[in-house]
Amino acid sequence: MLHGQRVVVVMPAFRAEKTLEVCVRAIPRDVVDAVLLVDDASDDATIAVAERLGLPTFRHSINAGYGANQKTCYREALRAGADIVVMVHPDYQYEPRLITALASLVAAGVYDVAIGSRMLGRTALAGGMPRYKYHANRALTAFQNLMTGARLSEYHTGFRAFSRRALETLPLGANSSDFVFDNQVLVQALAFGMRIGEVSCPTHYFEDASQISFRRSIVYGFGVMRTSLAYRLWRWGLVSPRIFSTESEFKLVDPTLATTAHA
Q1: Which sequence spans correspond to the domains of the chain?
Q2: Options 3.30.420.40, 3.30.1490.20, 3.50.50.60, 3.90.550.10; which CATH number does 7-251 get?
Q3: What is the SS3 assignment for 23?
Q4: I need a surface site. Which of 3, 112, 132, 235 has the fewest CB within 10 A?
């Protein structure tokens, strides 16, 4: 716990058998109350490794996508009584030992959302981030800051912490089930007036770390630009995208996606 608040770590997993254990071992259990894993119908031994490590595990019956995986992660974390939810990729691309720092920004009541930024501290390239991804990250971030009026160092990190209120307020159910989900969440947080803090986080790119292909990266980039333009048009009152809706139907509710719990 941090400041009397229950901290739950969620891990959206897909084919994570080779890296899951080292990632879980690095989680600071002195502040983390529970770790949950959601497996997106992996065809490897991810579930077996998670069970051996004693993780409460949920499995999608079909491969539904990275965004859909996160939706299940957050639903299950809220059901588990989380006050603060930290999302960590089980491929060890981000540093789990920084969970305490990330969660503290939220636990202190200073921020509603906190992100581990690979751009702060200039560690991205040193950690092996491909140069095309680095430059695309910087260009897309500059474009998004222009569209949103924010000053974030990056919008594309997969290492995040959320207050319970943030997860219950944001219309996450309206978001994509694909990789652009991450980006939509941060833009939603800005749209709903939430405070976003940042912590410098090194990144580790290696053979077993998950990476999306160049083609999927291009699709993601266009999705980011659409999300940013939708935000600007929404601010001008010209459109009403459902990702900025206040309707309860888009809040996190009972999942329609079948999941199987493993003890």
Answers
A1: 7-251
A2: 3.90.550.10
A3: helix
A4: 132
Query: Do residues 119 and 137 lie in contact, with contact meaning Cβ atoms separated by under 8 Å?
Result: yes
Return the residue matching tokens 């969620």: 10
Query: Which residues on adjacent β-strands are paired with residue 12?
Result: 38
pLDDT at 249: 84
What is the three-class DSSP state of 9? strand
| Closest by CA position to 244, among listed 159, 197, 174 | 174
Distance CA 147, CA 141 (A): 10
pTM of the model: 0.92
CB–CB of 252/74 below 8 Å? yes
Q: Is 128 helix (H, G, I), strand (E, B) or coil?
A: coil
Does residue 28 carry a pLDDT above 90? yes
- pLDDT (0 to 100) of residue 211: 62
Amino acid at residue number 105: L
Which residue bears the tokens 């986080």? 201
- Pairing mode, strands 84-87 and 259-262: unpaired
The dihedral formed by the CA atoms of 220, 192, 86 and 135, expressed in degrees to the nearest 10: 30
How far apart, in whole angstroms, are the C-alpha atoms of residue 126 and residue 259? 38
Q: In this predicted model, what pLDDT tens digit does every residue of 152-168 receive, in sequence order? A: 999 999 999 999 999 99
Task: Examine the pLDDT at 238 and tell me if it is beyond 50.
Answer: yes
Residues 38/16, Cβ–Cβ less than 8 Å = no
Tokens linked to 107 = 């636990």
pLDDT digits (tens, 9 = 90+) for 62-93: 999 999 999 999 999 999 999 999 999 999 99
